[in-house]
Amino acid sequence: MALNVELQQRQTEQEKLLAQKDDVSSQLQEVNRANSRLLEQLTELGQEKDKLQQELEETRKTADKRKAMLDELAIDVAQEKSWHKEELSDARLQHEKEVLGVRARYEKELRGLHEDKNRTEERSAHSSVTRGPHSGAGEPTADDQKPQGFCSIWAICIISQEAGCTGNTS
C-alpha cells in the first residue's frame, strides 16, 4: 500500500508538473506572440524612422538649396543696387557737366552780346557826336532798327538749342 500511495503521490505530482508545464508552455506561447508583435512594431518603427530621416535629409538639402539661391539673389540685388547707384551718380555728374557747359556758353554769349551792345551804343553815341545836331540825327540807324529784346531772345534760342530743348521760346 505504501507503494500505491507513493505512486499516487507521484502521479499527482506528475499531473501538477504537467499542468505547470502546460501553463508555462501557454505563457511561453503568449510571450512569443507578444515578442513577435513587439518585433513587428519595432521593425515598423525602424522603417518609419528611416523614412523620416530620409525626408529630413531631403528637406535639409532643399533648405540648403533655397538658402544658397537666396544668398545668390541677395548678392545679385546688392550688385544691381550698387550698379544703379553708380549709374545714377554718373548720370547726375554728366548732367551737372552739361548744365555747367551750357551755363558757361550762355554766360560767354551773354558777355559777347553785352559787349556788342556796348560797342553799338558807343558807335551810336560817337556817330551822333560826329554828325552833329543837323546831320540827320533823327534818322534811325541799322542798329537802332533792331527790336528791343532781340539780343535776349537770341540768347534764349541759343541756350535752348544747346540744352537740347525744342519748341517755341516765347
From TrEMBL:
Domain of life: Eukaryota
Compositional bias (Polar residues): 1-11
Biased segments, Basic and acidic residues type: 12-24, 110-125
InterPro entries assigned: GRIPAP1
GO cellular component term of the entry, any: postsynaptic recycling endosome
Chain spans, region Disordered: 1-25, 110-147
Protein name: Uncharacterized protein
GO BP, sorted A to Z: neurotransmitter receptor transport, endosome to postsynaptic membrane; regulation of modification of synaptic structure; regulation of neurotransmitter receptor transport, endosome to postsynaptic membrane; regulation of recycling endosome localization within postsynapse
